[in-house]
């Protein structure tokens, strides 16, 4: 089979790495890709939202399966674009259609979906500029901290958590009236703060059946001890050690099953990954958010633990035969530590040569914001590379990642030295 992966991060390098191991994978393309994917696939210089050029590449290269990494093309309707085109409609797209992608594209849509299908989540109300005063009143009924969420996609920056009521009111006005997050904050969801430990659950579905992938936990803040600004993710571990079988059963029965059934009832066709952001409040799982794709860097710890052939899985998803797949998971723990450019998530420099890659033996380097310049690998983004390792325990795996990092460097390289500290 010929496969095209859309995206350019560590997540997409991990997809390509796993797909390339399959005897069923004849030719592998990544658009636009990075220095990591260049070594195992053909990179095509196409933006993930340039559907017309993607169509040409798909037809020119006889692609059978398109795997969509990031959310933007899904929310813009890439799957519908394929279904509505006679030349493309038989090609399998891994990623939901536009209507279901609203689970990530609109926080209000996601909340309404959860409430109507009895899926546990924080209580909420949503507001626009026309009922700003009602928003102030709703905030007054809540206890701090206050959680404000821009309704639309805001590149992971649209959630504010504020301790002070006056700050919350000011931010609400900035979001609604002053377009703090552009169009994404034309509507704002205000919700109850949930106090607990976060984890993520990843589900594969063909729209009829589902399979649950291993749990993972990512570390979003830039600073050690979970302090400082939010990032795309600074590291991850899988499995999440505090999840007992009883807790996993609760996640499956109260959240995963009603989500899949809800998609069917609401007539939302879904072939792809569902990433469920959870918070464990006491012993109860509650949903913080849905994403309609895999997480990054969670993919860098979840996929390496998958022993089943990923091409077989994707083909089964495309044919609605996922039920026939037997998911085999590596019992070992996997961890990843993200190397980032100094300054990230604020301004940072690019083009720094990454030294030491050829010395890596005990870890897998998944390239993210890294590209080839002549024959050198140089930085090209904030999150540069995820260093993944296996271990009998997550502590052993983390130790290996840090030992590998000792041998790597680039100018102003930064990483968190405490991944897994809270487990
Ligand atoms: P999101 O963009 O929805 O993933 O939210 C970003 C982060 O905000 C989450 O990972 C949580 O740490 C936090 N968060 C979101 N909603 C809540 C909530 N209701 N209570 C507590 N923390 C939350
Ligand atoms: N690591 C969080 C995300 O991919 O959204």
Q: Roughly how much helix do the residues carry, as a percent range?
A: 25-40%
Kindly report the average pLDDT value. Answer: 96
Bound molecules: adenosine monophosphate, glycine
What separation lies between the terminal Cα atoms? 41 Å
CATH topology of the domain at 2-97: Rossmann fold
Low-confidence stretches: none
CATH class (first level) name of the domain at 2-97: Alpha Beta
Largest sheet: 6 strands, antiparallel
Continuous helix count: 13
Question: What does the overall shape look like?
Answer: globular
Number of strands: 23
- Determine Rg (CA atoms, Å): 21 Å
CATH-level-2 architecture of the domain at 2-97: 3-Layer(aba) Sandwich
* Approximate strand percentage: 25-35%
Secondary-structure-based class equals: alpha+beta
Descriptive account of the structure:
This protein has 423 residues and is of the alpha+beta class. Among the domains are: 2-97, Rossmann fold; 125-191, 2-Layer Sandwich (Dna Ligase, domain 1), CATH 3.30.1490. Helices cover 29% and strands 27% of the residues. It has 13 helices and 23 strands. It has helices at 10-20, 35-38, 51-60, 72-75, 78-83, 98-105, 107-116, 132-141, 165-176, 245-265, 299-302, 310-318, 394-406, and strands spanning 2-7, 27-32, 42-43, 65-68, 92-94, 124-128, 146-150, 159-162, 187-191, 197-205, 210-212, 217-218, 221-223, 227-230, 235-238, 272-281, 284-291, 333-341, 364-367, 370-373, 376-379, 383-391, 413-414. Strands 12, 15, 18, 19, 22 and 23 form a 6-stranded antiparallel β-sheet that branches. Strands 3-2-1-4-5 form a 5-stranded parallel β-sheet, covered by helices on one side. The two termini are 41 Å apart. The mean pLDDT is 96. Bound molecules: adenosine monophosphate and glycine (GLY).
């Amino acid at each position: 089979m010929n496969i095209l992966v859309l995206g350019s991060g560590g997540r997409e390098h991990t997809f390509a790495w796993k797909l390339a191991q399959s005897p069923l994978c004849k030719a592998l393309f990544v658009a636009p890709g990075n220095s990591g994917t260049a070594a195992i696939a053909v990179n095509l210089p196409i933006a993930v939202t340039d559907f017309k050029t993607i169509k040409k590449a798909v037809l020119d290269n006889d692609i059978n399966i398109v795997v969509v990494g990031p959310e933007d093309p899904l929310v813009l309707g890439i799957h519908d674009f394929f279904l509505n085109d006679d030349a493309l409609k038989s090609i399998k797209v891994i990623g939901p259609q536009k209507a279901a992608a609203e689970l990530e594209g609109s926080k209000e849509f996601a909340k309404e979906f959860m409430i109507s299908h009895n899926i546990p989540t924080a209580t909420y109300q949503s507001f626009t500029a026309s009922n700003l005063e009602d928003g102030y009143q709703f905030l007054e009924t809540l206890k701090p901290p206050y959680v404000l969420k821009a309704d639309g996609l805001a590149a992971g920056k649209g959630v504010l958590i504020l301790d002070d009521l006056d700050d919350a009111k000011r931010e609400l006005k900035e979001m609604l009236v002053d377009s703090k997050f552009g169009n994404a904050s034309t509507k704002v969801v205000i919700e109850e703060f949930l106090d607990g430990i976060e984890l993520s659950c990843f589900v594969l579905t063909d729209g009829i059946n589902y399979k649950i992938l291993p749990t993972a936990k990512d570390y979003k803040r830039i600073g050690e001890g979970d302090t400082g600004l939010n990032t795309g993710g600074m590291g991850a571990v899988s499995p999440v050690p505090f999840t007992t079988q009883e807790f996993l059963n609760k996640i499956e029965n109260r959240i995963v099953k009603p989500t899949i059934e809800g998609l069917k009832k609401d007539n939302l066709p879904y072939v792809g990954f569902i990433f469920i952001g959870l918070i464990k409040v006491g012993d109860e799982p509650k949903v913080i958010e849905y994403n309609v794709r895999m997480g990054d860097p969670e993919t860098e710890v979840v996929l390496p633990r998958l022993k089943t052939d990923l091409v077989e899985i994707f083909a089964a998803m495309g044919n609605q035969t996922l039920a026939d797949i037997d998911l085999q998971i590596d019992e070992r723990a996997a961890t990843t530590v993200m190397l980032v450019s100094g300054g990230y998530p604020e301004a940072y420099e690019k083009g720094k040569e990454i030294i030491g890659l050829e010395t890596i033996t005990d870890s897998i380097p998944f390239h993210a914001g890294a590209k080839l310049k002549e024959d050198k690998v140089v930085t090209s983004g904030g999150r540069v590379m995820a260093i993944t390792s296996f271990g009998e325990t997550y502590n052993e795996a983390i130790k290996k990642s840090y030992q590998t990092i000792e041998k790597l460097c680039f100018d102003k390289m930064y990483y968190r030295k405490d991944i897994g500290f809270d487990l």
